[in-house]
Structure formats: C-alpha cells, structure tokens
Amino acid sequence: MKTLRRRQIQDKIMEGLLVVSTITVLIPLVIILAYVIYHGFGALNWSFFTEELGSPARAMQGQPTGLVHTMIGTVVVDFIGLIIAVPIGVGAGIMLSEYPEHKLNPVLRIMNDTLNGMPAILKGLLAFALIVKPMGTFSGLAGGVALAFVMIPIIARTTESSLMTIPWSIREAGLAIGLPRWRVVLSTVMPAAKTGLVTGFLIAFARAAGEAAPLMFTSFGNNYLPNHWTGMIFGPVDTLPQRLYSLAISPYAQWHQMGWAAAIVLLSFVIILFVAARLLTRQKNY
Amino acid sequence: MKDTTKEILERPLHGVYRWWGDKLFLTISVILGLSIIALAFAMAWVLFKESSLALNEFGVVGFLKGRVWDPGVNFVFGALPFLFGTMVTSVGALAIAFFPAIAIGIFVGEYAPKWLGAIIENLIHLIAAIPSVVVGIWGIFVFAPWMREKVYMPVFMWAADHAPSLLPIVGTPIGYGMTTATIILALMIIPYTTALTRDAIRQVPKEQREAAYALGATKWEVIRMAVLPYARGGILSGAILSFGRAIGETMAVAMLIGNKNTFPFSIFGPAATMPSVIINEFREAVGNLHLSSLMAIGLALFVISLIVNLIAAFIIRKYSITGGQAV
C-alpha cells in the first residue's frame, strides 16, 4: 500500500513530466512557424507580385522575377475545386442529415470517411486517369478536380454535422405549416446552419489550398502566364504549393529565396482561411 | 374571413409544392451522395486497371517482394524498398509522436488553466494547418543541414574511429535521409494526434472524474484510472488515423528522404517511400510499364490506407459509448 506522501509525490512528478513534454514539443513546432514567417517576409519584394517566373537564366542574371502567374493560377484552380466540391458535398451532407432513414446512408458514411482518409496523392492519380488522360494534356481543370476530391469528403462531413445541430423542432415547425420537405431544408434548416456550412467550406478550402501532391501531375506547373485566359483552365497551370516544391528542389539560390517568399504567401493564405473559420465558429457559440 | 380561408385552401398549388418537389429534391441529394460512393469505387477501379500491366508482368506477390526498382536499364520494378521505407518512417514517426502528443492532450485538457489551454489548442490547430510543402522547405534549408552538422557528422565520425563495422548501418551523413524524414513526419502528425486525443478526453463525463476524486484519488490517479480508460478508444483510433496520415504524407517526405530507390537502406542514409516515389517519377515516367508500376504502388498505398482507416473505424465503434456515431 502506497503512502499518501508517495502518491502526492508521484502526482507532482507526472505533472512536471507533462509540462516538460508539452514545452519540448511545442518549441520545435513554434520554431518552424517563426522561421518560415521571418525568412519568408525577408524574401518578399514587389516584383514577386508583378512578374512571371520565366527561365532560370532570368533569375541568375538578376532580372526581376516573380510568381504572379502562380498566384492567379492558385486562385483559379482552388475555385474550380470549390465550385465542383460544394454541390456534391452539400448534397451528400443533406442526404446524411435530413434523410437519416435512407438505406444508402451507412454505405455513404463509410465511403466518405474512406475517401477522406485516402492520401491526397491518390486523388491526384484519380484525376490524372479521369481528366488528364482523356484530355491528353495537363490542365487547370484537372487540378481543380483533384482538389475537389480533397474537399468533397470534408464538406460532406461538416455539412452533415452542422445540419444536425439544428433541432428537429425547427423542421417540425416548418412541416406543420404545410411546407414540403425540400422547402423546409432550403429555407429553414440551411439558413439556420449557415455559419456552420460556411466554416466547413473554409476548412475544406484551406486544406485543399495547401495540398501539392494532387497537383503535381494534374495542373503540372507552368513558368509563364498563359497567352489567353482559357489557358488557365485547359492548359498547364502553376499553383503555389507545387511551385514551392519545384523552387525548393531547384539548384538556383535565387529560386530558393523565391521559395521562401512563396512559402510565406501560401502560409498566410491558408492561415487566414483557418482563422476566419475559427472566428466564425466562435461567433456561433455566443 | 371564411371565404379567404376557403380561397387559400382551394388555391391551386404549384407542382413543386404538391408531389414532385420532394421527390426531385431527394433524387438530387441521392445522386450527389451516390457520386461520392462512385468516387471511392472509381479510385479503386482506376488504380487496379492502370496497374494491371505491371501486376501481370511481375505478379502481385512478385511485385510486392521485388527488391529492384530499375526504370532506366532493365525495366524491372519491385515495390519492397518503398513498402519498407513507408513502414519504417511511419512507425518511427508514430513512436516518436505518440506519447508527447498524448501528454499535450492531457495537459491541455486536465492541467492547464483555461486561458493557457485555449492558447495551446489554437496554436496546435494553427500548426496543423501549415501546408506540407512549407514544412518541407524548412526541412530542406534549415533542419537537414542542422542535423547533418550537429548529429549525423559526430555520430559518423565516432563510428569511423571506433566501430568501422557499423558504418554501413549508419549510412552516409548527407542530411537527407530516413531519420530526417521520420523526425519531420513525427512533428507533422503531433498536432493531429493531439487534437484527436483532446477530443477523446473532452468526451469523458464529469461524473467519471468526480467519482474518482470522491474516492480520494490524486489528480494523476484520476487521469490514469478514470479519464484514460474512458478515452482509450478515441486515443487509440486517433493514433491509428495519425499513422494513416503519416503513410500518405507526401511532399515533406519526398523533399527530405533523399530518394534512393534501391536497398540497402541505412539509418541516416537516403531512402524512399511509396508516395515519394510516385511524386518523383510520375511526371517523368515515359514507359508504360514504369507508369503502370507507379500506379501499382498507388494501389498498394490505397489498400494499406483502407486497412488503416477501417481498423480506426472499428476501434471507435468498439470502444465508444455512443455506439459508433460520427466523431
């Protein structure tokens, strides 16, 4: 039988261990964040936002280069993904939460979780086989589809859970005044769950925006702005995560610097989306 | 008054309000839901179909057991180096990350004052949001060179002086290799494991803790006897999901593991994982057999991820009190 004294000492030891391990783990994580922010802002300059990348020779000769085409491409590809993913994800979410008795729901839930757990690179391979191969060319569309595969399971999941938070009495109130079910969902449940839905879209968008693996062999990358805007959709397009990878493994010091700049732009983009999502959920709790 | 009521009741309703509106809505929802199911099956089918060339050539077992990956001269493809690399890095990363991540989860949930807990939790979520490539660029330019100078070189020099027989096991200390990739992987899954642990601990009912306190338990005893047993299903499945994350993690590993496609691997030396070889070679692959072999590696990755996810789902179902509701 342990004495009370020994048990109290053990209690203190465990508390100390927990504090120490928390600190030792948080330090390297914070260092990564701080280093990227510090180094990234140092590497930013004006031409980064106005020029296109061009050939390595351009950077070696000290001419101004930048990633304006990459940033435009990122926005285009990410929004193609969002436009494809939102209807599918929301539809599946509605099916899961508003028709809980539907026979397909258990299968759908398992498949959705499976899809969510699949590595993003496999979603890239799928988009490659479904879009790139038939089209015969790498394209922004294929990249958008690959990102949609990343977003869809997340949106389905968040839509389901945010619709579920709306009490059934609200639906019953709608049904009681004679509204059909579709009108109840569209006009009472979805507006009431609006914040939750948008938060889900933001989280899915942010997750997909940081992914490079599905884009490497779908949107492929491009050193120049396309001549015509359709080139953004039907031709190879540059995106920030994929360009960041190419810059980091390139042999040119100037490109490494540009990689840090791309890192801070990408990080800011993703973090702003996440902070927006968290602020939205906080508002809902009040 | 009576007339208006009658008028409203007898006013002809638009069709969408009478019978086909609901049917249409349900049909659209089901089609959208079915497309997700179709997507999951399409992924399996596409990977299977595209890899059939390689699997026919080498046989499933032969492909998985093949130790040689030679896309240049002999066009022989075997997946064993990548299976091995993925398993070693993922298991290593989980082994490093598991206890610290749980420690943070417990600290935030049970010990930290509310304000500090909120700060740490937000920080963890923020760090989890860092894209993989951003961690990768930090690894390439900061972490790998630092490891080479401060850890690998001293160990290598010591081995060269005192135990030359160990050198092939230690491997060349170029900085990019299996150990570097494992540590970075561990750092990347810690926030994820922590968040899932935190969720599991949050679900432990207050009464459970109070019962233990009422018996005179100290705080640690409450955690060990009341909180952790209750949350073990969530923590365990969280760890398995993190393991799945580590298996599929692509960019940071591809940037740091050094990308050596053939055995023998060494502790510090370069290696490769299944996702990293796909990322590195898919863009440049020209031969059909090479492409098909990469797809076959994708298929293996698919099967492993599927198994890992199913195990996690099974554990949640088995241990959770609510009976397997979505967590």
UniProtKB/TrEMBL annotation, chain A:
Regions crossing the membrane: 16-38, 71-94, 115-132, 138-156, 184-206, 260-280
Pfam families: BPD_transp_1
PROSITE patterns: ABC_TM1
Entry superkingdom: Bacteria
This protein's UniProt keywords: Cell membrane, Membrane, Phosphate transport, Transmembrane, Transmembrane helix, Transport
InterPro entries in the record: MetI-like, MetI-like_sf, Phosphate_PstA, Phosphate_transprt_permease
Cellular compartments annotated: Cell membrane
Gene Ontology cellular component terms for the protein in this record: plasma membrane
Domain ABC transmembrane type-1 residue range list: 71-277
One GO BP annotation of this record: phosphate ion transmembrane transport
GO MF, any single term: phosphate transmembrane transporter activity
Keyword Transmembrane helix: yes
Membrane topology: Multi-pass membrane protein
Family: Belongs to the binding-protein-dependent transport system permease family. CysTW subfamily.
Name the UniProt record assigns to this protein: Phosphate transport system permease protein PstA
Organism per entry: Alkalitalea saponilacus
Automatic annotation (TrEMBL), chain B:
Record-linked InterPro entries: MetI-like, MetI-like_sf, Phosphate_PstC, Phosphate_Transport_Permease
Gene Ontology molecular function: phosphate transmembrane transporter activity
Record Gene3D superfamilies: MetI-like (1.10.3720.10)
Annotated SUPFAM superfamilies: MetI-like (SSF161098)
Membrane topology summary: Multi-pass membrane protein
PANTHER family linked: PHOSPHATE TRANSPORT SYSTEM PERMEASE PROTEIN PST, PHOSPHATE TRANSPORT SYSTEM PERMEASE PROTEIN PSTC
Protein name: Phosphate transport system permease protein
Protein source organism: Alkalitalea saponilacus
